[in-house]
């Protein structure tokens, strides 16, 4: 059996894309927390409004996280991802534990992005995302 004939374990996949126990990444890396220094209620309300603001995305659009709404390790804040597919109806995340942030998450976008480190550097990989957490990406000048 060649190495391409078998499925990768989750640990092997994470190692391939540069995420592992040896090189953990905190979800809060480069988290925009400036608005949490004052009125926490106002910050929560602002994040709620941002979460409720919907964008209509199409295949080929470039997107990035809305500030303060990142719930996955990748892409990083400010890093673009390309919309590969818009799912209607969305796929409901398979997390069965109601205490998880991913419980019943409606995954309505398939995004592609380049892995920028590790053995899979430069490969385009795809993941499912909740489009409510994303906004159009604009190139920083």
Name the features.
141 residues, 2 helices, alpha+beta, single chain
Task: Write up what this structure looks like.
- The chain contains two helices and five strands; from the N terminus they run ααβββββ.
- The protein is α+β, with helices and mostly antiparallel strands.
- The protein has a five-stranded antiparallel β-sheet with strand order 4-3-2-1-5, with no helix packed on it.
- It is globular and about 50 Å long.
Q: In what range is the share of β-strand residues?
A: 15-25%
Low-pLDDT regions: none
Number of helical elements: 2
| Spatial sequence of strands, sheet with the most strands | 4-3-2-1-5
Structural class: alpha+beta
Beginning-to-end CA distance, first to last residue:
49 Å
CA-atom Rg in angstroms? 16 Å
Strand count, sense and barrel status of the largest sheet are: 5 strands, antiparallel
- How many extended strands? 5
Shape type = globular
Give me the strand/helix succession.
Answer: HHEEEEE
Helix content: 10-25%
The averaged pLDDT comes out at: 82
Write a short abstract of this structure:
With 141 residues, the chain is of the alpha+beta class.
List the helices and strands and how they pair.
Layout: H1 10-16, H2 40-52, E1 62-65, E2 81-92, E3 106-114, E4 124-129, E5 134-136
Antiparallel strand pairs: 1-2, 1-5, 2-3, 3-4
């Amino acid at each position: 059996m060649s190495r391409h004939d078998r499925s990768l374990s989750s640990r092997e996949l994470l190692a391939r894309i540069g995420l592992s126990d040896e090189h953990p990444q905190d979800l809060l890396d480069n988290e925009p927390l400036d608005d949490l220094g004052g009125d926490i209620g106002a910050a929560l309300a602002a994040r709620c409004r941002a979460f409720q603001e919907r964008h209509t995305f199409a295949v080929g659009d470039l997107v990035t996280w809305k500030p303060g709404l990142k719930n996955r390790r990748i892409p990083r804040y400010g890093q673009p991802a390309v919309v590969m597919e818009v799912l209607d109806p969305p796929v409901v995340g398979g997390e069965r534990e109601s205490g998880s942030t991913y419980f019943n998450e409606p995954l309505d976008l398939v995004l592609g992005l380049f892995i920028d480190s590790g053995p899979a550097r430069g490969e385009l990989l795809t993941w499912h995302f909740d489009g409510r957490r994303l906004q159009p990406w604009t190139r920083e000048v």
